Structure formats: structure tokens, C-alpha cells
Amino acid sequence: MIFFASCGNNQTDLVKKEVEIYAKANDVRMTRGGVEFQCDLKGGYSFVLNSRIATRTLLAFYHDEDIKSADELYEATKAIAWEEYINPERTIKVTETVISCPYVENSHFVSLRVKDAIVDRIREKFDGLRPDVDIENPYITIHVHIHKDSAVWYLDFSGEGMAKRGYKVDNNLDVSMKENLAASILLRSEWEKSITDDKVGILLDPFAGTGVIPIEAALIASDMAPGLVNEDREYAFMRLPFHDETLWNEVKEEAKKRCEEAREKRDIRIYASDISGKAVKIMRESAIKAGVSDLISINERDAFTYEENEIAQRGFIVTDPPYGVRMKNDDIGSFYERIGNLLSSSFKGWRATLFAPESELFSYISMKPERTNTLYNGTIECQAAHYLIYTDEEREEQRIKNIRKREERLSAPLSDGAEKIFRHLVERLSFLKSEMEKEGVTCYRIYDAEIEEYPAAIDMYEGKWINLSVYKGPVDGNLDEYEKKLNDIVYATERATGIDIEDIHVKERMEMKGKSQYERLSSKNHFNVANENGLKVLVNFTDYLDTGIFLDHRPIRKYIQENSKGKRFLNLFCYTATATLNAIRGGAVSTVSVDSSSTYLDWALENMKINGYPTTITNFFYKSDVIEYLNQSFDRYDLIFCDPPTFSNSKSRRPFDVQKDHEELIYKSMRLLSPGGTMIFSTNFRRFRMDQKVLDNYFVKEITEDTIGEDFKIRPNIHKCYLIRKKVKVSLKKR
């Protein structure tokens, strides 16, 4: 029998391990969205009963690799002997997944066509009688998976909601984590590795909420199959004609025996607490329903009251701290900073796994995670960050070790090239630091390819991090020479700035067109907080070429802040909305921010959140092509900021070229500008020339020189900037 177990993204390896342990399967294969495996009926039962991670299990029973049209799909479906599984008294439901299929435009069409074929087959076999469709509670669910010309028909084996255990108590808190997600977090943590035949590492969840993490931990520690929590639940396989009740009971008895042995042998100590009495009450009730209340010590208390050595032995913290609507504290950054202080002061020698849907929250914690895992709560991308919390002795040993390594590195002689860059940076910083301090600037450029043979840009953030962009790739294909020059820049930067080499982030910046300069490089999802003009801005040094803030636009953003009081502000191509933040701080009565990227709009919303600004009522964000937005909008704005990319592509219209298309962009923007209003137009295209028609029809003042900060004056053509206003018609009255 061939099965397919579906699961969330980045969890297929966990499901594969479960398949190997419980199904004892052959030919296990990880695929997109799940794991395919082959085993007997007993193995299928065992997997469904024991899997903590899978969301649904399907049984494949027909496969066709040569279907070229919807009609062929219908005929192939109708040829299957459905009467062996379905009769007119049984309701059905058909679901589908479709990938790269040339004859399918709407995936829902597949399920309709398959349903029609099944119904027609049954009608022929049962004298015109047919089964009804029941979307909510069908007797049998059929799933069809289509990939190009290949189709696989499945019977639902487990039923939907396989991840639900049945222990959750109905409540109106609506903040409870999904059970399989909690299990995934635990299995990704170091705690899971502490479980042996006779011992389990101590586990604490100090922000337990309604207790899903500690309850799942107790199920794992006691080797209790999730399917045993509610033995009366009905699985889809129970409605299939080949279901073997005796074999199913045998599988359950084996699981019960395994759990009894684990409980008898293992020393299990799990601690859970929460500040909410209501949540603690629900947690206790849920633990009783799960059958693990005797394994969890549950208390109502503030997490920040834990003291050092309160729990006798070192252990593991696995927790999902509150965030957003779950907390009354407006300053979530300070809250997470307190969590970091709590861990480092009260849990020395412990390991900790923190889970958050907003990965930038980890930037407030003083420790660096050893590793992170990306997990999905439904469609929401989240992060689990794993920390090793040093004791005072370990921290001192590590500090000394790092100092020695750093001293060795810094005492080693620099190459001639690195020495040249080092001297240049020292001279540059001696001037820039004082200038930037006068302006209150903490993020600025310290090098911009002044030395010809080292074409790179070096930006310093908060005196803590370096973003180093190399302008060109390997020189004449000589990788060794390229690596040498890159090392020269990095070592010289560390020595000149005093910023550790681990905080120097290197990126290759090639000449790019279209979307490529915005595409993701990696997915570490680690954000840091930078400061500018009295605002907090989230920056990311690893995942994209750009960090989330264009430092050369700092004076433009300051101008916006100083000139937005009482105005309606429009930010076109808003990126991470740093200009919008400045408009709000400057007193804008309303703001609208437009961008076609969901990624950057999400980033923008997080920037709003950490500054305590509302994202409703007065501040609006729209995912849209800017030209389309301008065509459809009839609102009026007093201040418009437009900073288009040099090039971009869009599926819905022709490619955008700032030199060719800025006239149209400006005209459409000016249509929305209120009388007496101002449009700020900026571009980083260094050969840009303003169209003569724009100059003739509007008052245009170039302010480029005034928008170049001291740190960018070494390369003053970094961008161009203009103020554009409507011409006022003056009528002369006769006397």
C-alpha cells in the first residue's frame, strides 16, 4: 500500500522519521508538502495513531501518467471501480492539488470534473441513483493530485484534522497553538535529544498559556501516541471496506504498552506556568483530558519572578512568549529584552527555545541563537530560535576564548592592500564620527569604493554591525584573487571599526535589472533594530541585498518629517515604509503607502508596530502596482514621495524604466497632488535626466545637493532628488 502524509513546510524530515519508526515503511520519499511511503495496513494504522506532525494521511489507489486533457481525466476517473467504496447512500467529497498542469486553469475545476465522473459511474451501477456531496462531513473523501500529465487518486485514510488530539478545552482566549506545531518546536529543540529509555531532561514553559507545549511535551516524554488521547475518535479508514478492526485494536494495544513502559521507567519532570489565572485553569483541564496532568507541575505566576537555581537541575526552556494582542505591554521590544535578561540571569547553564511569528523580536534578546528553524503556523512564517545560556564560568571562558581569537586576528600583519584600506578607513572615521554625532546619526556609510582596486561600499549601523556590499564579482574569473581582496576589506574593516568579524555581513552586489535586487538571498529572518530621526527601523543583514533602509535617503526622510505636519502623505514604491514613519512622526494627518511586494509591506507593518503607530484609521497600506494604483485613485495628497526603482517588471504591464517612464509616473502622481502641495521625486539612476515636458509643465527644483549627507559626499551622484509643484494660474481682472 502506498501512503502520502501531508505536513507543514520544513517538517517533512520530522514526518519521515515518524514513518520510519512507526510504519516501518519501505521506499520512503520526501516530496513537496509531505512524505510518500509504502507499507502494509498495520503500518498505516500505526503511523496515523502515532504521528505528532502529519496533518493528513492519504492512501493512493490509482495512478495514470498520461492524461492530456480534462476529458481524459474524466474518462480515467470513471474507469475506476468506485462502487467498491461508494454507494448512493454514502456522501462524498472531492479535493485536489494541481501543479504545472497545462489543461487546468482553475484547480477547483479538477475536483468538479472528478466528482462528475464518480457520480456518473455510480449512477450507471445503481440504476440511476447517485451519492450526494457533503463538504462538511462526507462518508468518504477522494483526493486527486495532478502534476503535469500525471494524476494520482487517493482515498482519505486518516480524515482531516489529524493533528488535533482532542484535549483542548473550548475557550474564548483564541490564542492556542496548534498541537502539531508545538510538537514540531519540541522536536526541533535540544530537549528532544535528552530523552532516553530511563530519563527525560527537565522542561519548563514559563509562558505556557493554555498549555499546548507542556502537554505535547508530556505526550512525547511518556511515549503516548497522540491518537490515544481520544480513543473514540473516528478515522476515515474506518469507513473503508478493507478496514480490519482486530488489527487496529492490536496497534492500539501495542501503543498503550509502550506508553506504560515509558511512564514506569522514565523520570519525567515538566513545569508550566502562566501569569493568567484563566489560562492556567484551562491548562489544568486540558492536561487532565490528555491524561498527563500527573506529569506536569502547573502554576499561576509571573515568568519574571523565576530566580536562579529555583529548579534544582539545569534543563530546557521551550516556550511561545506572548506578543501583539496577547500582551497589554505596548513596548514589545522591552518585553523581549526582559526575556533575554531573565534567561541569562535565572537560567544559567540551561538551553532555551523561543518561538515567535515575528522573527525580529529576537533582535531584542542580548544572546545570539545557536541556530534557528523556520516553521509555519498555517500560512504564517514563524521562527524557533535555540539558545545555549552560559553560566558565569562558561561565559567568562567563552569571552576569554573570543578575545584571544580576536587578538590573534588583530595582531596578525595585514597585507599591503588591507593596510591601505585600513589607513583610509581610520582617516575617514576620524572625520565622520564627529560629524555624524553632531547630527545624531548612528547609521552611515564609511567607505564607497574610494580605492579603485577595492570596489565595495561599507555601511556601519549603530556602531555594532557592518553591511559590506562588494560591487563586482570575481575579477576576470580569478576566484583566488577575488577572495584575497574580499578578505583584505573584511580584516581592514574589523580593525578600523572595532566591530567583530561575526557582525560584518558581506554581500555581492552585481548590476541587476527587474526584481532581482529585491529577491531573497537566504531565509535566516534575523532582524536588528536601527535608529534614525527618532524612529526605530528593522534591518536585515542576511536575507536581501538591501537592509530595509536606504541610508543615502536619510536627509530626504528628515525633510519629509520636517514638512509633513497636518498633511496627507502618499508614499509610492514605499519599500519598508521608512519615509511613512517620518511623515507620521512629523505630524501627518494621514498616510498611504503603496508597494507591489507583500514581503516589504509586511516589513513595513512591523516597522509601524515597533514605533507604536496604528495601521488602521489614518495609515493605510496597499499591495498594488504603483501605476495601477495611480490610475484608480481619486484621493488628494499634500505631500507625495516617489522613489521608483531604476527598472522593474510586472506581470500586468510592460517593464518599468525610470528614464523612459518617469514622465507618465509624475503626471499620474501630480493628478493626485492638492493645490499648493509638493511631490518629492527621487531616483538612484545616476544618469537620470528630467524630461523637458515635466520641466515645462511644473515648477521643478532640483535639491540633490541638499539631500546628500556628509557620509555620501565622497560620491555625490548616489541619487537625484527634485521638488515638483503645480504651476498656479493667475487671472488678471480688468479695472
Characterize the structure shown.
The protein is α/β, with parallel strands linked by helices. Helices cover 33% and strands 24% of the residues. It contains 18 helices and 29 strands. The strands form 6 sheets. The chain has a 7-stranded mixed beta sheet. It has a 7-stranded mixed beta sheet with strand order 10-9-8-11-12-14-13, with helices on one face. A 7-stranded mixed beta sheet has the order 23-22-21-24-27-29-28, with helices on both faces. Strand 17, helix 12 and strand 18 form a beta-alpha-beta unit. Helix 2 packs across helix 7 (245-265), helix 3 runs parallel beside helix 4 (107-125) and helix 13 (554-562) packs parallel to helix 14 (578-585). The N and C termini lie far apart (99 Å). Residues 325-330 and 510-523 have low confidence and may be disordered.
Set out the fold topology.
Blueprint (H helix, E strand, L loop, with lengths): L1 E5 L5 H12 L2 E6 L2 E5 L2 H10 L5 E9 L5 H9 L13 E8 L7 H19 L14 E8 L2 E7 L22 H10 L14 E3 L6 H10 L23 H21 L4 E5 L2 H14 L5 E5 L15 E4 L12 H15 L4 E6 L14 E7 L2 E9 L3 H20 L4 H24 L3 E6 L7 E6 L3 E6 L8 H19 L6 E5 L19 E5 L2 E5 L14 H9 L5 E5 L5 H8 L4 E6 L2 H13 L8 E5 L2 H7 L4 E6 L4 E4 L2 E5 H13 L2 E11 L8 H6 E5 L17 E7 L9
Parallel strand pairs: 5-6, 8-9, 8-11, 9-10, 11-12, 17-18, 21-22, 21-24, 22-23, 24-27
Antiparallel strand pairs: 1-3, 1-4, 2-3, 4-7, 6-7, 12-14, 13-14, 15-16, 16-17, 19-20, 25-26, 27-29, 28-29
Helix pairs in contact: 1-2, 2-7, 3-4, 5-6, 11-12, 13-14
